[in-house]
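pasting for ref
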Amino acid sequence: MSAQETIREQVTNNKVVLYMKGTPQFPQCGFSANAAGILKACGVGNFLAVNVLADPEIRQGIKEFSNWPTIPQLYINGQFVGGSDIMTEMYQKGELQKLLTS
């Protein structure tokens, strides 16, 4: 299975997917830590966290899949939401919480 097929399967089969550097328990960059923290603050306890540092093909592939150059990247219901800054802005406005409960 190619990286693109793997990514497509992950975002299709999971309600919430966060592509990040590290894991929610041990993030490897501040932006990834922020993104995982926002999901936790929204009450999302069960989401697929994909550590892009563990797989260079996924790390590059997710950038091509979304046409977005940075990580972390959040997907909800198969749709690309954005990175850490967008997540923060949406969380502060209450938009992310609504999207997560839809």
